[in-house]
Amino acid sequence: MKFEQFVQQADIFYNDNHPHMRYGQSVMNVLYQIRPDLYEKIKGTDFDCFYDDSTVALTLNNLETRWETAY
User: Fold this and answer.
1) What's the CA gap between 44 and 50, in Å, rounded?
2) DSSP string, the chain
3) Cα separation of 45 and 20, whole Å?
């Protein structure tokens, strides 16, 4: 899956299925499902947006740079 598809999945997860969640929670939940390797690398760091929506852009920028090379 390409990074752009991941972002689309996070948007769908949030908008269509879980609008009661914060967007950062949705991003991290979808990341866990699609790329658990990347999830484990960023959880609990400054790039973990689960608890803070203000860091979503930082998280997505970081993930985009790691996406192809993180395996």
Assistant:
1) 9
2) --HHHHHHHHHHIIIII-TTS-HHHHHHHHHHHH-HHHHHHHTTSTT--SS-GGGHHHHHHHHHHHTTT--
3) 24
Quote the pLDDT of residue 71.
Answer: 54
Q: Which amino acid is at 38?
A: L
The domain limits of the chain are 3-64
Averages of pLDDT over runs of 10 residues in the chain (71 residues) are 95 91 96 96 96 96 88 54
Residue in this structure with the two tokens 């997860």, named with its chain if needed: 13
pLDDT for 68 equals 85
